[in-house]
Amino acid sequence: MSDVSFFRDVRIRKWKAIMGLLARRNLFHDKVRFAVTLTGIVFALVLIIIQFGLFLGFTTTTSNNIDHSKADLWIVFHGVGYFDTGRTFSERKFYQVLATPGVEEAEKYMQAFARWKRPDGRVENIQIIGVRPGSELGQPWNVASGSAAALKEEDAILVDELYREKLGVWNIGDRVEIGGHRARVAGFTRGIRSFTTSPFVYASFKNSLDYTNPTSNEEDVGYILVKAAPSISPGELKKRLGERLSDVDIYTTAQFSRKTRFYWMFTTGAGLAVLTAALMGLVVGVAVVAQTIYAATMDHIREYGTLKAMGATNRYLYRVLIEQAVWSAVLGYALAMMVAHFIVTASEKGGALILMPLEMKFGMFFLAILMCVTAALVSINKVTRIDPAMVFRG
Amino acid sequence: MKRDFQMNGKADNAVIRAAGITKIYREGAADLRALSDVDLEIRAGELTLLMGPSGSGKTTLLSILGCILRASGGTLELLGESVEKLPRSELPRIRREAIGFVFQGFNLFPALTTVENVALALDVRGVRRSEAEARAAELIREVGLVEKGKSYPADLSGGQKQRVAIARALAGNPPIVLADEPTAALDSTSGKNVIELLRRLAHEHGRAVVMVTHDPRVLSYGDRIIHLEDGRIVGEESGREAVEMTAAAAMA
Q1: Which of A8-12, A178-182, A374-378 has the least mean pLDDT?
Q2: Is the minimum CB–CB distance between B194 and chain A shorter than 8 Å?
Q3: pLDDT at A9
Q4: What is the predicted ipTM?
Q5: Collapsing DSSP states into helix, strand and coil, what is residue A122?
Q6: Domain total of chain A
Q7: In this structure, what DSSP letter does residue A12 have?
Q8: For residue B240, what pLDDT band results from cuts at 50, 70 and 90?
Q9: Same domain as A277, residue A168
Q10: Cα angle vertex A17, ends A13, A19, to 5°?
Q11: Is B87 on the interface with A (CB under 8 A)?
């Protein structure tokens, strides 16, 4: 126990390795506590991912057909505010559109509800989507078997694999009745969900009129999809068409997509419920993480009191706690991502789609860090207010 | 901080000088007076024992001397520096530079090895890890635990833990060591080893060691024994006097 001043010979460094060691060891030392902490963080993150993934999934599903239409503009019956309304208007407007300078391509498009009679006789409600086979616009996508071009064939329809059981069709060539007319499965799409309980069934535009309204004539049009020529912007073309057409509304694809999403998510209340659940998930998640990190800190409160008695500054304590929080967040995030990927993958074959885009993955990482560090800061507040005299209480 | 243990230019070896120290705890509407007008000098090279019944104010006084608690009144000088005038934010610096603490409950960090526990006290002081660990290993050797350097506190006996705690208290080479009932949780042999270690710190290394204790077995080791009752100093004697008085009382 030399009395030579040790401090004469050592340089004061900002790098404090044992502080980091303490942060990590405190975290990993008590395996049960560590497991509880990680479980809390993983639970919170997975809850938030699922809730927001469901919200994104629902939102995306409502405007799927619009977003994949490859059109620049959607022309709809005046007052139709969203996709699934199914109001029709005169075909004459279609020709007016075609005659408008700046229109590179235009297609008639139909959406309407119809009755589907399964091979076993049971009846289901469906939504018919009528498109012109061979066109670039409005076609079904993600065709898993058969092809969209097969819609040219007589009575041909495409349905999604997700609804095989509901619709009672399993193979290409299976025959059913739609609106009293014969139909034959010519292919299956993959992952085209309907937001309603009525699955989408793709058919040629001509057949879609027969399936949906036996009294209709070929002059009925549900929507007109427009692709602008390269020489004109969709916005300018929209303005030009607006000057020529009456009794219709013209939207850019993005506008119509937004309106449709907004209608389903907020006007109907369905989305509001999902959004509320997502926000509740966030609140519960934050609370769980806060409680978990707070409890983990309080477990070591006496040690922090000892550090204060030893002369550690509040800054020193902040760094220990924040390093612990960041470690917890990173490890919790890694585990949560594994669990979430499993759930998201499973959801692709289920009734409710959960989406986890790249932005969400990044966002969740920063949210995890933010939640854990914020929770640590709350407990830091407690730690920095420790009465150091507590260390004397046996 | 390196000081020559001189107080205000006086050539005595008092490292702590307390005058009129009062501590009042506010408990609701009532005030609890834990210390009243305590005058005290702690000198380098001495082992000073603070004794008294529970609630007499021993630990409160130790906390104030260690700049952990602030007195409600009175003056306190540590190594010539008036502590009561310093802002609260300065107190951690005083604790880092001047004081080493030994606690009744050891207060070791269970997730760190014994060397790391001692090195942590240097880390708090901004010392680089390799140097801190080298110094810590040296201290662990000096308290007789060279073979336990990589052990965790859970693998040590009570006496070994307290020796690690003493090594930690010495890591910053402080002139003052404050110990709160360091033998209370130990068997008699371990307690004897610890008190001998503390006395050596005072006598051979010139440190001022203040120890709160209830333990009559340690009376003979104290250079000065200060008795507290109801927050006041009621008597002071040497270790020899205390042992003689205890023996006389036993014979009577």
Answers
A1: A8-12
A2: no
A3: 39
A4: 0.86
A5: coil
A6: 2
A7: B
A8: confident
A9: no
A10: 105
A11: no
Domain enclosing residue B197, as ranges? 44-68+86-251
Position A2 scores a pLDDT of: 44
Domain assignment present for B27: no
Residues A117 and A175: beta-carbon distance below 8 Å: no
How do residues A119-168 score in pLDDT, each as one tens digit?
888 999 999 999 999 888 999 999 998 888 889 888 999 999 999 989 99
Q: Compute the distance between CA of residue A162 and CA of residue A156 in angstroms, rounded to an integer.
A: 19
Nearest CA in chain B to A312: B124
Give the domain CATH number at B155: 3.40.50.300
- Where residue B6 falls among pLDDT bands split at 50, 70, 90? very low
Residue B1 covered by a domain:
no
Range of the domain at A168: 79-246
DSSP A266: I
Residue A255 lies in a domain: no
| Residues A102 and A18 placed together within one structural domain of the fold | no
Structure tokens at A282: 């966030």
CB proximity B65 to A under 8 Å: no
Instruction: Quote the number of domains for chain B.
Output: 1
Chain B stretch 146-185, residues whose beta carbon is closer than 8 A to a beta carbon of chain A? 168, 170, 172-173, 180-181, 184-185
* Pairwise CB contact (< 8 Å): A311 & B93: yes
Question: Per the CB < 8 Å rule, is B180 touching A392?
Answer: yes
For residue A19, give Cα distances in angstroms to A316, B98, B164: 8, 21, 19
